[in-house]
Design goal:
The complex is a heterodimer of chains A (about 525) and B (about 325). Chain A has about 525 residues and is of the alpha+beta class. Chain A folds into 2 domains: about 280 residues, 3-Layer(aba) Sandwich (D-Maltodextrin-Binding Protein, domain 2), CATH 3.40.190; about 220 residues, Dipeptide-binding Protein, domain 3 (Roll), CATH 3.10.105.10. In chain A, about 30% of the residues lie in helices and about 20% in strands. In chain A, strands 1, 8, 9, 10, 11, 12, 13, 16 and 17 form a 9-stranded mixed β-sheet that branches. A 4-stranded antiparallel β-sheet of chain A has the order 4-5-7-6, with helices on one face. A two-stranded antiparallel sheet of chain A has the order 2-3. In chain A, a hairpin with a 6-residue loop joins strand 4 and strand 5. Chain A is globular and about 75 Å long. Chain A starts with a helix and ends with a strand. The N terminus of chain A is likely disordered. Chain B has about 325 residues and is an all-alpha fold. Chain B has 12 helices and 2 strands. In chain B, strands 1-2 form a two-stranded antiparallel ribbon. Chain B starts with a helix and ends in an 11-residue tail after the last helix. The chains are: A alpha+beta (about 525), B mainly alpha (about 325). At the A-B interface, helix 5 and helix 11 of A face helix 2, helix 3, helix 7 and helix 11 of B.
Amino acid sequence: MLRKTLLASAVAAAMVASAAHAETLRWTRSADSLTMDPHSQNEGPTHAVNHQIFDTLIYQDMDVEYQPGLATEWFVHGDDPHIWVFKIREGVTFHEGQALTADDVVFSLDRARHEHADMRGLLTSIKEVRAEDDTTVHVETHEPNPLLPNNLTNLFIMSREWAEEHGVEEPQNYAAGEETHAVRNANGTGPFRVVSREPDVRTVFERNDDYWGIDHYPMEITALIFTPIESAATRVAALLSGEVDLLQETPVQDIERLANAPGLKNEQGAENRTIFLGVDLASAELRSADTDDNPFADRRVREAIDLAVDQGTIRTAVMRGNAQPAGMIAPPFVNGYSAELDQVIPSDLVRANELMAEAGYGDGFRVSLQCPNDRYVNDEQICQAVVSMLSRIGITVDLIAQTRSLHFAELARGEYDFYMLGWGVPTMDSEYVFNYLYHTKEGDRGSWNFTGYSDERVDELTVAMGQETDEETRNEMISEAWQIVHDEIVYIPIHHQMLTWSMRDDIDFKVQSENTPHFKYLKFND
Amino acid sequence: MLAFLIQRVLQAIFVMFVVALISFSLFHYVGDPVLNMLGQEATEADRAALRAQLGLDQPVVVQFWQFVINAAQFEFGISYRSARSVSDLILERLPATLELAIISAIFAVVMGIVLGIYTAIQRGSWLSKFIMTASLIGVSLPTFLIGILLIYLFAVELGWLPAFGRGQVVDLGWWNTGLLTASGLRSLILPAITLGLFQLTLIMRLVRAEMLEVLRTDYIKFARARGLSKRVVNLRHALKNTLIPVITIIGLQLGTIIAFAIITETVFQWPGVGALFITAVRFVDVPVMAAYLMMIALVFVVINLVVDLLYYAVDPRLRVQGGGK
């Protein structure tokens, strides 16, 4: 008995010692957060920084599993499927001392739905948010929405009192020409508080010792220093020279070098992003092609392209192994993923050429392919590989590779025939993919469907899967929709991107598929 | 004198106006800022609303006129990317760029003149030949490559100097400086060399050529015949006459150094206005791009104005307004 107690106290002492030990982590990635205002931008690096300072009701942990944050429980109201009930964690305080109440949650959700908030795109299904009591929030949606909690994982909770005190009840309005207090200051409930911030230069955080989850998470970092470095070569050099400890987004060409560098290691995992090619399959005539019709309208031509594009070669030659060839536009952890549909069709040039001849394009044709050159990993090189692969079935491709702001602007204006796109699924559910990529482009839906593809049944299923609350029925709808678009070859999938983070080898931390590190989980191996 | 001055200032204003017009019409080809500002869930209606809010749906002429009116009042609006006042952003980052530019200019001028004199006087020595050959590398290698090579050698392999950033800075209220701390000074070395190397080789070659020219003139021969020491002949009589064209070039190059800091700043993650500009271009942050280009134009215009006025002071012929002909 005595020995047991001694052992326990020794363990406790060791734990105290390790917790008291000051550990600094210096973190870098290519881009800084755009603003401290948690609702004005819906953008990855901005969310990644805000996740250290703020909490969300629900968040995705390092395995992208949904975990309780400021909400301890959430469920659909027993009497009304339009209402989601959230139980708010008790005893939580903001960094500046305000106590968290249900009213702050109502305030934050309303603020994020304001017309100046970029976050509002994720919350369009909400009709009203109400605080029933200090710890219960009811969110009423226009239609029953089974996916509402999935849309809240980057929805940060602010203090109403703080916002009113600083006149930031509304998010930044660009037209006003003035910067608000919330752009540079933050008061969250999160695991770290901001000590100092110079945008694009350095942000210093310290551990929030009053964090509600201080005993629940490792919380080993006492000081966190974030320095964005835009140039890839410099970023890697900074890690090699020991000036930073953890590098997010390791460039593909440096992965091997960093793996062999003493004292460093790589962590890899699947990223929530699939790269694919799209075609204009609906127009009567293509803009850039030398034909007077639209070859892409013929399913056989699309199948020939799919057969000619060799995803395996792209993986080995262009991506140096750091990609997972794809057959569908959803990575494995998304609800509705099917290993069968994700199978890559093996390259078959004989069959591809037969299909081209059958479709009446035996002599081939000429068309332009539009690619970004600074958006996805090795995007331009992938397109170059596609150009040479398609030349083997007689399609002469003129490659137009340009910066992302031009690429996406041209897609939005409809100036393309054949293009590259990448897609992530932040809600972890197929409905998101169908809503944006496959639904007919009309109203708020199909806004990224540049193919012109329109199928009544798919549209019907897309709307239904956004409202169906019975899981089994819903999953049947999802798999039916996937089968239809797979058979139609609406898109030509290339691969799921892989994500690499490099770090000091005494750090115990793994890659998060959303590319959002939660540093409260990071541990140091002594 | 006053007429000349007014004429030159009017010319300068015209140049600024033209720069504004050209840069503004170029922004049309950089892409659509609204796509970067709104996330992928935004609808077409959201984008249209933001476009209207920012005035981007107006004809370019109207946008340009609005910009000129605001710019005349030093009002450059708010950054699309960071939602912060553009004037603040630039003023906050200007000290970093100016410190880097001035230190590299000093480095280039001092080293350029010293090496230029040495290679002119010791024309045949192997060291001169080595310096001349090495200077070819300085002229021909692109800046970003020099920067990366320096980082790999001095930061990664040797571990002597930092690979990025500005180190510890001291805030003086109206200026933040890296010149007062050890880490700030250490951080300055590699970027300053990278930025100054091209100017250094330029100045060195110019000094050498001028020096060789001057050394052949009669008065140098007389000075030697008078029995003056080699030191006095070279450094007092020859060098003085060499420096006139060199000073002109240095003045003009200072503007170039500030403008060319873009690449060096990006490679070293130096928090100056050049890096700010590159980030702005990527995001299509029109207010920042416009303000930066106007600032660079202003720097060049001011330098040229000063040079013109100096010529006016130096050259009496300019003062005779056409009548002397």
